[in-house]
């Protein structure tokens, strides 16, 4: 899956998924069933775990660094912002980072 980034000099919030077909990839625009979705951004990180994509941080159109966390369910087409309790350890806003799924 690919989310956001720059297209012709502007940040976008579209999402594409690829399916391998022999030696080629077939790309498809991912549809969402809700209006709620992450803002256009670049330099964020995403991982796919199970049937969900998780997106963290990046930079918005005004170059503000972000520390929001979103979940996208591949089966339902629903984005959901994950808001942690105020007393949680939350990474500071950042961009240009990477993310991995560790130990499941």
Strand content: over 45%
Total E-strand runs? 7
Low-confidence stretches: none
Provide the helix percentage: under 10%
Give, in order, the helices and strands: EEEEEEE
- End-to-end Cα distance, whole Å, is 19 Å
Structural class: mainly beta
The overall pLDDT, averaged over residues, is 93
Which sheet architecture does the biggest sheet show? 4 strands, antiparallel
Number of domains: 1
Question: Helical region count?
Answer: 0
Based on CA atoms alone, the radius of gyration comes out at: 14 Å
Strand order of the largest sheet: 4-5-6-7
Shape: globular
Explain what you see.
The chain is globular, with a radius of gyration of 14 Å. Helix content is 0%, strand content 49%. The chain has no helices and 7 strands. It has one domain (2-82). With 104 residues, the chain is an all-beta fold. The strands form 2 sheets. Strands 4-5-6-7 form a 4-stranded antiparallel β-sheet, with no helix packed on it. Strands 1-2-3 form a 3-stranded antiparallel β-sheet, with no helix packed on it.
Write a compact overview of the structure shown:
With 104 residues, the chain is mainly β. The chain has strands spanning 2-7, 10-21, 24-29, 45-49, 52-59, 65-73, 78-82. The chain has one domain (2-82).
Chart the SSEs and their pairings.
Layout: E1 2-7, E2 10-21, E3 24-29, E4 45-49, E5 52-59, E6 65-73, E7 78-82
Antiparallel strand pairs: 1-2, 2-3, 4-5, 5-6, 6-7
What would the keywords be for this entry?
3-stranded antiparallel beta sheet
